[in-house]
């Protein structure tokens, strides 16, 4: 089985001074995921794809170039609420959290929901209490606040900057040496969102999905538009019906953007290990890596297959 990892740093519009750092961040995330994938394969770990996805997304969550955890968007009230969702193909297990305040590693808590609870989605204070009981989660406003987020919040509120379609969400899809798949997304939400707003990222089928016979996918962009189309499941359904993954991803991004004007992006790996990377937005930082493939990272553009 050919192992593979794809990562993204969000579909939308990036400030000029973030272009280089976003590409570098995506590359570091892919390298971290690949290193974890190799280590898990060497020790024959059963959830190699999950381990690699977490390793990659943790790099992105800690990078202030992106809008997830450290660098998350501020709500209309100037607070931070993060979401994340994860799913693995071998047993369709899933875990997600939403509207959790001041959390710096949302993907780790989402995994804990998947591995250590009987639920699929926990929100708000209940998710925070669960994380503390499990001994996971790094909480604190100082861990998520950045000068970038503060500046953008103030400029949008003042009408100096357009807050629409700003690059959001980070994510990864991974296929390990066993052919098992994992999809994982993490987000700081939409700038100036109402408190309690939840987008596609923690919603099964819309923001993420993984299935042994369909493949795995993660989405990025304006959550309301992606949820309307249950975007990840729709993409994989089209692949199962015979459409090549890359063509299906490009077509679905174009359709959603065309009908809504929303910035959107999709990453996927089909059951045979063929990757797809597409977006309909000004920018999207992404990277691809595998044991038999050199790490490649870039800003914007779709994967050429």
Describe it:
The protein has one domain (4-299): Glutamine Phosphoribosylpyrophosphate, subunit 1, domain 1, CATH 3.60.20.30. The chain is built from nine helices and twelve strands. The strands form two sheets. Strands 4-3-2-6-5-1-11-12 form an eight-stranded mixed β-sheet. A four-stranded antiparallel β-sheet has the order 7-8-9-10. It is of the alpha+beta class and 305 residues long. The longest helix is centred in the first third of the chain and has 24 residues, at 19-42.
Describe, in short, the structure shown.
By secondary structure, the protein is of the alpha+beta class. It contains 9 helices and 12 strands.
Helix content: 25-40%
Question: Which term fits the overall shape?
Answer: globular
Query: How many structural domains?
Result: 1
**Radius of gyration, in angstroms, nearest whole number:** 17 Å
Distance between the termini: 19 Å
Supply the number of helical segments: 9
Q: What are the low-pLDDT stretches, counting only 5+ consecutive residues below 50?
A: none
What is the fold named in CATH at topology level? Glutamine Phosphoribosylpyrophosphate, subunit 1, domain 1
Tell me the series of helices and strands, N- to C-terminal: EHHEEHEHHHEEEEHHHEEEE
Q: Please state the average pLDDT score.
A: 95
Oligomer: single chain
How many DSSP E strands? 12
Sheet with most strands: strand arrangement: 4-3-2-6-5-1-11-12
* CATH architecture heading: 4-Layer Sandwich
Strand content: 25-35%
Question: What is the C-level CATH assignment?
Answer: Alpha Beta
CATH superfamily: (Glycosyl)asparaginase
InterPro entries: Ntn_hydrolases_N, Peptidase_T2
Keywords: Autocatalytic cleavage, Hydrolase, Protease
Active site: 169
Site (Cleavage): 168-169
């Amino acid at each position: 089985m050919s192992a593979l990892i794809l990562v993204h740093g969000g579909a939308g519009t990036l400030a000029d001074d973030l272009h280089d750092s976003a590409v570098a961040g995506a590359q570091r995330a892919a390298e971290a995921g690949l290193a974890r994938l190799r280590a898990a394969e060497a020790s024959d770990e059963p959830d190699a794809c999950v381990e690699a996805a977490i390793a990659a997304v943790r790099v992105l969550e800690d990078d202030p170039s992106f809008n997830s955890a450290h660098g998350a968007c501020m709500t209309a009230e100037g607070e931070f609420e993060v979401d994340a969702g994860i799913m693995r193909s071998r047993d369709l297990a899933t875990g997600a959290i939403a509207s959790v305040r001041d959390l710096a590693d949302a993907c780790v808590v989402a995994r804990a929901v998947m591995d250590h609870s009987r639920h699929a989605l926990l929100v708000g204070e209940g998710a925070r209490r669960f994380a503390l009981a499990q001994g996971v989660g790094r909480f604190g406003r100082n861990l998520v606040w950045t000068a970038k987020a503060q500046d953008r919040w103030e400029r949008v509120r003042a009408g100096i900057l357009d807050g629409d379609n700003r690059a959001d969400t980070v994510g990864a899809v991974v296929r390990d040496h066993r052919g098992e798949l994992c999809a994982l997304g993490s987000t700081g939400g939409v700038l100036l969102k109402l408190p309690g707003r939840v987008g596609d990222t923690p919603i099964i089928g819309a923001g993420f999905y993984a299935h042994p016979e369909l493949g795995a996918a993660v989405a990025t962009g304006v959550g309301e538009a992606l949820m309307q189309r249950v975007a990840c499941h729709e993409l994989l359904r089209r692949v199962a019906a015979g459409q090549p993954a890359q063509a299906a991803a490009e077509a679905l991004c174009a359709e959603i953007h065309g009908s809504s004007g929303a910035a959107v992006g999709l990453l996927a790996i089909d059951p045979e290990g063929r990757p797809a990377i597409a977006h309909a937005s000004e920018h999207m930082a992404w990277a691809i890596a595998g044991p038999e493939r050199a790490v490649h990272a870039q800003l914007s553009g779709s994967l050429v297959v």
